[in-house]
Design a protein that fits this description.
Elements: H1 2-17, E1 22-30, H2 33-47, E2 57-65, H3 70-80, E3 88-92, H4 98-109, E4 115-117, E5 134-136, H5 144-154, E6 159-165, H6 168-182, E7 192-199, H7 207-214, E8 220-224, H8 227-239, E9 248-251, H9 253-256, E10 266-267, H10 276-297, H11 315-322
Parallel strand pairs: 1-2, 1-3, 3-4, 4-5, 6-7, 6-8, 8-9, 9-10
Helix pairs in contact: 2-10, 3-4, 5-6
């Protein structure tokens, strides 16, 4: 038994000593010069922290600032990031910049280059058929349903009315909420939706939807809406007296930012969601650890594609790195 253990240890040592010196390049697609500068500083720190980077390896960065729309972004990524043989990309787009994030994900995903995005919370990015090589540091808005269910149980609310936008995020939240409630059949814990009301994003009046709610016996209202839609909903709800005593408003994070949210509104917010520097640093550490493992387990690592017209044998390695 002792001999077997010793043999394994020697084999591992020989394997490690046979690994070549390597340099890895990580791409960064940032939304301004400040985040671009932080990316460079953070990677320099990670290179020398003594933990994140494997022996005989060095991490380099290749960064760019987001410019123009999705098509321009995709072309820019091809010409300035993929052309530098990056093994992974971190994208930190500005608030509301999901189009740019999607462009980076599509472009890099075609070549199985892993992407970590820091601030895109659209439910669409959870679709692995489209975004097969994408990770993110924040959850989608639809996962607020998990907390809503727990909070309703905690407060002993058994029924609620869901008012949500006819968007991918609104429908994903509805589906997730209903799936969660179906898991619990214990009548002491069960919660359910008494009614689901869907509205068109950007509509001018919500009197019709709120009148339906006013005539309902259930007074717990779940709201999934953008900040602008939520502002109009709260305005009309106050006009119809649907914010008076007896009503409970449990809203999503975006709706909470409306200036006229009713007093006593319940909501949840993600801590440090807007700390770009922290999210970028965490993303780089994740990539560094993955590259360390790749270096220590792969004698041969093919060169990533250096052109969006390139065909290489990188695909399997990219998938391994992503996992």
């Amino acid at each position: 038994m002792v001999m077997m253990v010793m043999v394994v240890m020697v084999m591992k040592e020989v394997h490690s000593s046979s690994l070549p010196s390597r340099s890895f390049t990580i791409g960064g697609v940032l939304h301004d010069n400040t985040t671009q500068q932080h990316f460079t500083r953070a990677l320099r720190m990670i290179n020398f922290d003594g933990v994140s980077v494997a022996d005989k390896t060095t991490l380099y960065e290749e960064t760019t600032v987001l410019l123009g729309g999705p098509l321009t972004t995709a072309l820019h990524v091809c010409n300035t990031i993929i052309s530098k043989a990056v093994l992974a990309v971190v994208v930190a787009s500005a608030p509301g910049g999901s189009g740019a994030t999607a462009a980076v994900s599509y472009t890099c995903g075609f070549f199985h280059i892993p992407v970590i995005c820091t601030h895109s919370r659209d439910s669409a990015f959870s679709n692995k058929n489209i975004h097969a090589s994408l990770l993110r540091t924040v959850p989608p808005y639809s996962q607020q349903a998990d907390v809503w269910v727990l909070l309703m149980r905690r407060l002993h609310y058994r029924q609620a009315i869901l008012l949500h936008s006819a968007t991918a995020d609104g429908r994903a939240l509805k589906d997730r909420f209903q799936a969660l409630t179906r898991r619990h059949t214990d009548p002491e814990e069960a919660v359910k939706l008494a009614e689901v009301i869907e509205f068109r994003e950007g509509q001018e009046s919500f009197v019709e939807e709120l009148t339906t709610i006013r005539h309902h016996l259930v007074k717990v209202i779940l709201l999934s809406a953008s900040e602008s839609d939520a502002g109009r909903i709260f305005h009309d709800a106050r006009y119809l007296n649907v914010t008076s005593e007896g009503y409970v408003w449990l809203v999503g994070e975006e709706a909470l930012h409306a200036d006229n949210a009713p007093l006593g509104t319940l909501a949840l917010t993600l801590n440090h969601a807007h700390d770009y520097n922290a999210h970028i640093t965490d993303s780089l550490r994740v990539v560094a650890r993955a590259l360390k493992l790749l270096h220590e387990t792969q004698l041969y690592i093919p060169t990533p594609p250096v052109s969006c017209d390139d065909e290489s044998d990188w695909d399997l390695t990219g998938q391994t790195l992503f996992r």
